[in-house]
Structures are given as structure tokens and as C-alpha cells.
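Example with several molecule types.
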Amino acid sequence: GEDVEQSLFLSVREGDSSVINCTYTDSSSTYLYWYKQEPGAGLQLLTYIFSNMDMKQDQRLTVLLNKKDKHLSLRIADTQTGDSAIYFCAENSGGYQKVTFGTGTKLQVIP
Amino acid sequence: DAEITQSPRHKITETGRQVTLACHQTWNHNNMFWYRQDLGHGLRLIHYSYGVHDTNKGEVSDGYSVSRSNTEDLPLTLESAASSQTSVYFCASSESLRQAPDTQYFGPGTRLTVL
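Resulting C-alpha cells for the full complex:
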């Protein structure tokens, strides 16, 4: 099966930038996603990037995609306490409808 | 507003009992999914459905079953609950948009404990 890997934990100070990394396995994935899970809730789509793009910026969020290395990253500028959550990267391996999720990175923001 | 709901939100059961977790969506989405979330494993796909009467096994389907008799519901059944099935279960749904990213919308989750 596919493995989408992330580090389990990241701690940053409020106001600093956070960078969450992910390595994926399926080079044929069309879209790569970042989902956010707040405590006690389901996942919500944060952003996505089409596989023919290198970078996508959306306000405080920057997604970088390195297809050669199958590496995806999410940068959060000016990290706030409200950004504390678990962040999952995902790829649509196995077809456009089915998504494989990573192990999740728990982001802790220290005031 | 359209939504996806799960019930119950919390369930405690005993080993060997049959348990059914409900998932109901009002998005009118064709695709529905069941995942389990465990520490260190992230989300793992249990079963999924691309439409009424369609069901497919995911990577961790042993001990679970689903049925899809209408668009709105995909109940997940644990035939004989085991302690290894203690987990948080998430249901999700998505449209089939071939020209756009297939965003999945998640329910709030069901925390199941098998004693």
C-alpha cells in the first residue's frame, strides 16, 4: 500500500513560521492536499495543490511541491495559537476519488 | 446547510458484540468513506462507496462491513467487536468532480471503546 509520511510533532512560538513536511509515494497523484483537524473534530480541507504546480500561496499558507523528491510542505506564516491542530497531508493515489492520508503532524503553538 | 453527521458520538461495548456506527450526509454526494484514526497511523481507510449499492474494501477492512442502500447513509458494522477496534471512526463524503480536486467533508467522529 501507499505510505504518506510526516513527522508526528512540531512546536513553534507564536509569531514564528511553521513548516510541516510530508513525503508521498504515488508520482501519478493529481492533487495533494493539506487537511487540518482541530481537537475533538473531523478533518477540514485547508488547501490543495495541483501536481503540475511548484508552489501555491493562500494568505498565511504557502504550499511547496517537489515532485522529483515527492516532497510536500506547508508553511504557516505568523503562526497563531488558533493554528494549534493536527495537520494531515494527503494524495489522491488510486484514482481521483480515493485519498490516502499521512500520519498527521501535531502542531503546538507556544504563546 | 448541508452537513455530515455521525452517531453515536461515543460508544462503549464489549468484546464479541455487534456494533453499528451511523453516517448520514445531506450533501447528496456520491462518494462516502469510513476511516479509523489511531495514534501513529493517521487515518486508515476501512471501506468506501462510490454510489448506491457500491461498496469497496479499504486497507483495514477485516472485521468491518458496510452497505449503501441510499445516497445519504453508509452505516459501518463491526460484526464481532474486538479490543483492537477501539479507535476514533470518521465518516467522509465527496462529490465526483473529474475536473477539480475531490474535497472530502468529514463528520465529527465516533469514539468507540471495546472492553
